[in-house]
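Why run this: before we spend reagent on co-expression, it is cheaper to look at a predicted model of the complex and decide which construct boundaries make sense. The entries below are exactly what would go into the expression plan.
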Amino acid sequence: MTNDSLPSWNDGAAKSAILDFVARVTKEGGPDFVPPAERIAIFDNDGTLWCEQPLQVQFFFGRERLETMARKDPGLKERQPFKAYLERDMAAIHDLGKKGLLEVGAAVHAGMTEDAFEEYARNWLATTKHPKLGRLFTELTYRPQVELLDFLRAHGFKTFIVSGGGIDLIRCFSEERYGVARDQVVGSSVKTRFEMQDDRGELVKLAEIDSFDDREVKPHNIGLHIGRRPILAFGNSDGDLAMLRYCKTGPGPRLALLIHHDDAEREFAYDREFRLSPLAEALDKADEYGIVVVSMKRDWRTVFETG
Amino acid sequence: MTNDSLPSWNDGAAKSAILDFVARVTKEGGPDFVPPAERIAIFDNDGTLWCEQPLQVQFFFGRERLETMARKDPGLKERQPFKAYLERDMAAIHDLGKKGLLEVGAAVHAGMTEDAFEEYARNWLATTKHPKLGRLFTELTYRPQVELLDFLRAHGFKTFIVSGGGIDLIRCFSEERYGVARDQVVGSSVKTRFEMQDDRGELVKLAEIDSFDDREVKPHNIGLHIGRRPILAFGNSDGDLAMLRYCKTGPGPRLALLIHHDDAEREFAYDREFRLSPLAEALDKADEYGIVVVSMKRDWRTVFETG
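The model came back. Tokens follow.
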């Protein structure tokens, strides 16, 4: 295994920890060997695989439909979380947290079939640009992470996304951008109803949240969808701490990693003050819990996949 | 593609339908070609991949723990669904349906960690024999289906189980017996709580059912776990009808199959009178819905994997 395996990673403690871990778990006959079926690697999405600033992509995704809904139903402007989003009241949006974002998402897409949602979302992702960075959101994936996903799969790992974001939005680009199959995406979700429409069975999205995949719910959903404790986990916020600890405290070799967004020049610099998804407890306890902190500024040679 | 691909299947309409379908969807440049990522095949488990008579394996699995619980808490004998199960009152058990079975399962395993459950269940499966057939339950998997799973994977399909049975029990043998990875098992499930126990993060099973994966819930869970409409679906009861129609009514080539248990000599003969999991509507409507009925007696050369 040479340093060329991860060309967008600078040499340093983080890259060494990854290369060393993969070498150990794949060495047949070695003391830390892990059979391929157990090589489960999980990645958060927002802020771990792509940019989550100034707000999660989900925010921009729901906005146009929310505004259309509010024109038809002006009462929405008086009800939270809709009021905050319609007024772009950033303080209130942060107060309402990621759950508010999900509630808006659930409301604005309710009644769509999964097939119609897919078409709508793919079209949106293909045409809408990040308001500050001027590129498609799917061009704001992180190159070092895409390399790492490829590298892990080349060494027999099965790679999964475990995100607080909507599962079906991520599935619209996970195969193309990350090489992660749709069934290997875990995320927040809404309830659906199966019904026949013109002799075709359809899943219709309901307004009710089925799972808000954040914090302690992430290990639950890992159990539900994957059914196996991961040996590698990568996150970037306190919302990922439970899944990092679930990974790290299992028996045998384990690697838990945390991105620190400390690169104001190439991306954004933030941690505990980003109230929608703060990095505070996980950063403070990283040493104690054996979590490797990755500095975007120091450890990544390149940031974005397309740039 | 020769007839030798599925040696435990007799020549006939069902085998031809399978071979023809697989040939069409894998023929590059052909009108029905389906890219590998979209070759999703789903199988029910109880009665489709292994024997579900005289009662689903789940019934035998929970029984010992239920009897232990009832010795400590005699009040259980007065409450349904426990009363019916403790008294082995078959009429009441059938009245309570598959959901009663799940409620018993949820109650008797509540408080166990997922890791402890796994160890317990594997030991049970390795030592407990079917009361009538005198073999381990995992020896009562169907050889023609195991061949079909292998055959589909050899042709680029990704194979999944979508079962009304408990997801974590199936995961204890799905890799070894079916070649289906743990994350490719969808089933009924309970809520869990993530907590630290002696510095180790554990998922603790709760008594509350999270998903009863039957009938219209099956398409919902396919959407949640797989995120893609299957092109091949195989079931054996009315509980599978919604997922068979979800598969079959999508665009492009589709194959939906239904096992008819009509082989009293080698297995069991039953359909609409098996109240826990009847086959009635699906059988009556199979022609209209374009579902291929597989006769166990006529279409299978061998029944059990080990025999």
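The longest helix of chain A spans residues 90-109. The interface with chain B takes residues 37, 40, 114-115, 158, 160, 167-168, 171, 175, 181-185, 189, 191-194, 196, 199-201, 203, 210, 216, 219-220, 223-229, 242, 245-246, 248-250 of chain A (CB under 8 Å). Bring this page to Monday's planning discussion.
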